[in-house]
Amino acid sequence: MTACNSIQAEEKSIVKEKILSGDNYGELHDQGKLRTYYFYTPKSYNPDRPMPLVLVFHGDDGNGRSISNVTRFNELAEQKGFIVVYPDGIDQKWSLRGNVQGRVDDVLFVSALIDHLQQQINIDSHKVYATGFSRGGILTQALACKLPNKIAGFASVAGSLPVRLKPNCQPKTSVSILMLNGTNDRDVLYEGNDHTQRGALVSISDMVNFWRSHDQCTSSKESPKFSKDKVKTALYTGCNGNSEVWQLAVVNGGHFWPGGSSTDESLNKFNAKLGLNASEAIWNFFERHSS
What is the chain's mean pLDDT, rounded? Predict the structure, then answer.
């Protein structure tokens, strides 16, 4: 029995040592489909030492590589010492409804992906985090509903909570979540969408209130870090299980990743004046939380 265990341990460590720092690609089979992901491992990765994991989900018509370029999480991963994984949606989209016309359930896929990554890389299972943009932000909200036992912190950018999901969103644990939205977003409307390609979405204030209520947060304050005329911040604390709910509202901001790279010059000018780097703000939030 002991010999068998040591062989398994040896095999496991050999697999983990194959991961090279820098750009990597991986795949796994889940729900009858071959799934792919791109990931970045910092130079400081040591297969004998567990490292935090950040999962980043692209928007519709994107992929893992494209959202890595926008968010520049790789640079941050190198500086701060975490592994960042960018999964690819099937046909560049995420599906929250399994069993509909043979579609996969991407919440189940993310759960399987975390298990798969833990076999490949030495991940700190208490420091697994999820963030996403647009449809990827909506997926992040769904993960907060369904996988808070595996993921310690969530951050949705330009996303919201699907109306259909809200009544069934009853996580048994508290949820630490940051929500970042532009008040002038034409795709994920601040006042909510009755019907979009993404399905009906609750308003941003309803989404924030939903998580505040779930976590039973008792106090709130504004962050002095950003000027109020550019970014309105509300930090809800005194919540169950040391959880926190943060809201950042970019005044007159559209459907974008604040501080991200873009080929749109007007957006680059807006970003320069804004002085908010979403990726850094999200990592600072994640660092405060572990499961």
Answer: 91
